[in-house]
Amino acid sequence: MKHLNKGQFYGEVNEITKLEGVILTDTEYTHRKVDWHYHETPYFTFILQGGLIEENKKEIYQCSTGDLLFHNWQEAHYNIKPEGFARGFHIELDQNWIDSFSLDMKKLQGSICITNPAIKLLLYQIFRETKINDNTTGLSIQNLLLSTFVQMEGSEEINYKERPRWVYEIQEILHEYCCESLSLTGLSNLLNLHPAHISRYFPKYFRCSLGEYLRKLKVERSLSLMSNKKLSLTQIAFECGFSDQSHFIRCFREITGTNPSVYRKLLLG
Known about the structure:
Layout: E1 2-4, E2 12-19, E3 22-28, E4 33-39, E5 43-49, E6 51-56, E7 60-64, E8 68-72, E9 77-80, E10 87-93, H1 95-100, E11 110-114, H2 117-132, H3 137-153, H4 165-177, H5 184-191, H6 195-206, H7 210-225, H8 233-239, H9 245-256, H10 260-268
Parallel strand pairs: 1-4
Antiparallel strand pairs: 2-3, 3-10, 4-9, 5-8, 5-10, 6-7, 6-9, 8-11
């Protein structure tokens, strides 16, 4: 069975960024199928374009643009690439880096599919930093990575036993219908909960207000559409539920720190 060393992924490497204890790789997937293999260190896989199927002995992940996986084990897996262009962004973490920041990885064992939009948005920012690549890139990436792990410690994927049923129900509703018009009254009727209960306890479980969470979902959805050259920014704005392009640009800038057009140029080159 193939053992991949740090910084090694199947496919064509577009760019590799090496920091102390961290390797970031922008890779185009070129193999129709990659046989069973395993990686040396914990790592993220973030699908930038296209799709990828990853299977281990326990789970199958059918990933599409914008999907994020975190792996903290050395169990073997294999990959299948569907037809079309596919590109991934990988972040590998050396054990010394993990120890240097005293990160507790006990809750992060195994393979985790991350849906939290706040975490995904941090990954997009890390990717953006690799393309800026100036004398503050290293510091910025380290800071964003630590913020990522802080978010992961409280994420719904990790602390599933500590959350009431309605938290999962509202999460499913928001992720499925974030681009449509939602109301607090409508959500309370669907969940059979008083609106005040939702407003009071939503920040406890999602670490932000309901409105902030929805805006993050919309911006994260827009980021997954950026690589589709057939869509204009105006089309992306309406597709993601923004009232107009100016509203889209304003929210995008507030959440990511840059304009949609600038990010699109970084992504597509």
